[in-house]
Amino acid sequence: MENPQNPGLEFLQDINLKLSINVGSTEKLLVEILALKEGDVIELDKSVEEYVTVTLNDAPFAIGEIVIANEKYGVRIVDLAG
């Protein structure tokens, strides 16, 4: 059955793509990393309110915001990269 939104592209539907969400980063000294233990919190360089970057095969794809859905984290797409 042909997809009305993407006519003629059915053969591409089974291709695996790497979708990643960058929620932040930080830098630590090796001694700090070795001292980490269960329950420690690692602070990132982004606040909770900031948008996150969604990448597709390591290329910017969209901007989103972190949400909780069915007790799991998710990302709501706010804007597609263009």
TrEMBL record:
InterPro entries found in the cross-reference section: FliN-like_C, FliN/MopA/SpaO, FliN_T3SS_HrcQb, SpoA-like_sf
GO cellular component terms, alphabetically, are: bacterial-type flagellum basal body; plasma membrane
What kind of membrane protein is this, topologically?
Peripheral membrane protein
Give the record's keywords alphabetically. Answer: Cell membrane, Cell projection, Chemotaxis, Cilium, Flagellar rotation, Flagellum, Membrane
Q: Which domain of life is it from?
A: Bacteria
Q: Extract one GO BP annotation from the record.
A: bacterial-type flagellum-dependent cell motility
A single Gene Ontology MF term assigned here is: cytoskeletal motor activity
> Which residue range or ranges hold the Flagellar motor switch protein FliN-like C-terminal domain?
12-80
Database matches in Pfam families: FliMN_C
Compartment(s) of residence = Cell membrane
Q: What is its main location?
A: membrane
Q: Which family does it belong to?
A: Belongs to the FliN/MopA/SpaO family.
Name under which the protein is recorded: Flagellar motor switch protein FliN
Native source organism of the sequence: Nitratiruptor tergarcus DSM 16512
